[in-house]
Amino acid sequence: MERNVIPWDRIAARLTALGKRPAWLATELRTGTNTITNWKTRGGAPLGRARDIAAALDWSIDELMADHASIHHTKSSREAYNEPHAGDNFTAGPDIKPRFYPEISWVQAGMWTEIADNFVLAEDARKYQCHIDLGDYGFVLRVDGVSMTAPSGVFPTFPPGMLLFVRPYEDALPGKFVIVRRNGNTATFKKLIQIEGELFLEALNPDWPHRFMRVQNDDVFCGVVMHAGFDL
Fold it and tell me: Peptidase S24/S26A/S26B/S26C domain spans which residues (predicted)?
């Protein structure tokens, strides 16, 4: 499980105490049941949703994060480039450790939740730095194919060869560009949209067959694209 998450067992215990199901939480948070399923599978919810989750569960953030505090403070000093500390006349600064993320295959992306903890990067594998923190399990994909190439003059567009910087454990919300595993192990890249209350995966290329695909219960969101660009 990723360290910087709200432990799922904490959320599940509160749901049980309230006599509620995960689907109820999805409704309260105005997100899809797939998002909640992903949290359960991955062992936790993003810290950025702490306030919303606490409000839905009728808890304070302190109560929700009670178990997380002890996990956070066990982080070893080797994981920080500049370990935050405070003095009498200054406050803790940010951790400015450089972050490099591996370029992986689309098959590996589809299985990332299962292999990330034990993933061994090949010696000749490429790694890229990103100005956005993608988390401990962030990864990079290279666009293959033209399904996400928008018409000329339309922005954004993701032509073949463009690098996608992906943050796992990020909420897959309508309007986001997501990496999704469906019908097997290989991941796909699409825009998540909502039409009349239903979630769809949209290809930006208007000529792409099956441009709009309804999100299925067994689809797994592997991450959200936080940045995209070319390797010059």
Answer: 102-225
